[in-house]
Amino acid sequence: MAKPKKPPRPKAQTPKGFRDYFGTEVTHRAEMLNKIAAVYHRYGFDALESSGVETVEALGKFLPDVDRPNEGVFAWQEDAEGDKPGDWLALRYDLTAPLARVYAQHRNDLPMPYRRYAMGPVWRNEKPGPGRFRQFYQCDADTVGAPSVAADAEICAMLADCLEEVGIARGDYVVRVNNRKVLNGVLEVAGLAGDDKEAERGIVLRAIDKLDRLGPEGVRALLGEGRKDESGDFTKGAGLGEAQAEVVMGFMQAKRETGADTVARLRDLVAGSEVGVQGVDELQLISDLLAAGGYGPDRVEIDPSVVRGLGYYTGPVFEAELTFEIKDEKGRARNFGSVAGGGRYDDLVKRFTGQEVPATGVSIGVDRLLAALAAKGRLEAEATGPVVVTVMDRDRMADYQAMVAELRQAGIRAEVYLGNPKNFGNQMKYADKRQSPVVVIEGGDEKDRGVVQIKDMVLGAQLAQEASHDEWKERPNQYEVPRGDLIKAVRDILDRTS
Predict the structure, then answer these.
(1) For residues 10, 15, 18 and 21, what is the CA-based torsion angle, rounded to 10 degrees?
(2) CA distances from 271 to 21, 220, 247 (A)
(3) Cα separation of 207 and 218, whole Å?
(4) Are 426 and 461 in contact, with CB atoms under 8 Å apart?
(5) 85, 57 in Cβ contact below 8 A?
(6) Could you give the CA distance from residue 141 to residue 163 in angstroms, rounded to a whole number?
(7) In whole angstroms, what is the distance from residue 228 CA to residue 231 CA?
(8) What is the pTM of this model?
(9) Dist. CA 299–CA 317, nearest whole Å
(10) 281 touches 267 (CB < 8 A)
């Protein structure tokens, strides 16, 4: 009789578009989140932790079709209850849509305005690529219920403070501010107001959102008859005349040497449009409020070329851009680019309540910010591992545990070697792999004499690379100290290597 085949073993591999994070990466992210949270807290924002799962109906952007929700989210349908079909649920794709649901659900118990920050992973069922994952962290702060653009100015100031707090030096970033109302005024001046021009406005919005990728000439083509790309595919344009296109292009190229000159240029472009003038006035007020708080153009500036998100936001829109250069995978210099963005979205909560509720907020891309700090050399390449207490005698494990307890009570990260202690060389290999700065050794002889051996792993690594034989003798990296001086000896090494 043939033996039954064993089922195949599962492959030990990360799902496509996801990745694992180890020691230092997790530590660096946690440290960054703590620093950003401290700034948010200092500004008076309260923490909110909502569910990672929402109903598809609450998420709003993705709605179920016959079989399953549209692409873009990880969704599933609950089991039916009797004749009632189960709800469609999905992992959240950002932290803003859950905020709208939370506010609508608990608005009678929340202060008005409601100021909250939230941090955590989000999931998007999109095609992964280099540096683009299906799970990533966001770090948001929002004010709900404040109609004044003073709330937008505060968000910009807070964003600048966050960047400096995590290690982005002043001069290496700029927070750029634009306003959707100014664009609406420009479209009105260009003859694109009214319900009958909705399709053309949509094409214009999508065109200007591609400014970074296509450049001015590519956008100009999309404003006109259309554009053929390198593959030969043709994208239909908005069909604007030359004068109309010139007004839109003038908006995107309105930045001048000073904020005052930029505002003056925008005011010229929207002359005759009430909503456009209102948008320019808001930009002027934001600039004045920030200047009063010490946030000048070296940190925050008015810049009409900020177009990302203009189709989504209803008023001011802002983006934090890192201005320093890095080398890409081919060794070419390029600007690092955007690490945060946000703006005013006064109609998001309306889906739930039927009433317009003003809101403004920002989202910081934690992973991109960490990559930026790594590119600038502002992250430690390796985290310091724990002090390792070796085991020379299995029967004296209580002695070794007592040492570790003393070290931990003194605030020192430490552990006892818990593998097979038979081979001392393996214990040293373990300490090296753990990046341990210090190894503590106490055999029977040391126990009888009331001493311990201290092995300075950091100095040992340096001597192995640089020192001559005589230097090894002059600067031994292993020595003994009285047992009562254990804490002091270890701390001396840690203080020297930190």
Answers:
(1) 0
(2) 53, 22, 12
(3) 8
(4) no
(5) no
(6) 14
(7) 8
(8) 0.84
(9) 16
(10) no
| pLDDT the model gives residue 362 | 96
pLDDT of residue 471: 58
Q: What are phi and psi of 116, to 5 degrees?
A: -135, 155
277 neighbors 267 (Cβ within 8 angstroms): yes
Residue that the structure tokens 């089922």 belong to: 7
> Counting every residue, how long is the chain?
498
Q: Are 186 and 270 in contact (CB under 8 A)?
A: yes
Measured in degrees and rounded to the nearest 5, phi and psi for residue 227 equal: -140, 135
% pLDDT > 70, the chain: 93
pLDDT at 68: 52
440's tokens: 């503590």
pLDDT band at 206 (very low <50, low <70, confident <90, very high): confident
- Which residue in this structure is represented by tokens 């934090």? 320
For 293-327, b/e burial (b = at least 16 CB within 10 A) is eebebebbbbbbebbbbbeebbbbbbbbbbeeebe
Q: Are 436 and 457 in contact (CB under 8 A)?
A: yes
- Encoding tokens for residue 120? 């955590």
* Cα dihedral across residues 261, 267, 270, 275: positive or negative: positive
> Is the torsion defined by CA of 51, 55, 56, 61 positive or negative?
negative
Instruction: Report the C-alpha gap between 66 and 101 in whole angstroms.
Output: 24
Structure tokens at 110: 């929340």
Report the half-sphere exposure of 328 (CA within 13 A, side-chain side).
9
Q: Report how far residue 302's alpha carbon sits from residue 287's, in angstroms, rounded to the nearest whole number.
A: 7
Alpha-carbon Rg for the chain, nearest whole angstrom, is 30
Q: Which amino acid is at 118?
A: A
Contact status, residue 165 vs residue 35, Cβ threshold 8 Å = yes
Cβ–Cβ under 8 Å, residues 266 and 304: yes
Q: Is the pLDDT of residue 66 over 50?
A: no
Highest mean pLDDT of the ranges 180-194, 276-290, 322-336, 368-382? 276-290
Lowest mean pLDDT among 24-28, 69-73, 323-327, 449-453: 69-73
269, 189 contact by CB (below 8 A) = yes
Sheet holding 46-47, edge to edge: 46-47, 114-123, 135-144, 359-365, 333-344, 316-327, 173-179, 300-302
* CB-based contacts of 426, cutoff 8 Å, min separation 6: 419, 420
**Positive or negative CA dihedral for 341, 346, 348, 349?**
positive
Number of H helices, E strands in the chain: 18, 18
Q: What torsion, rounded to 10 degrees, do the Cα atoms 263, 267, 273, 278 define?
A: 30
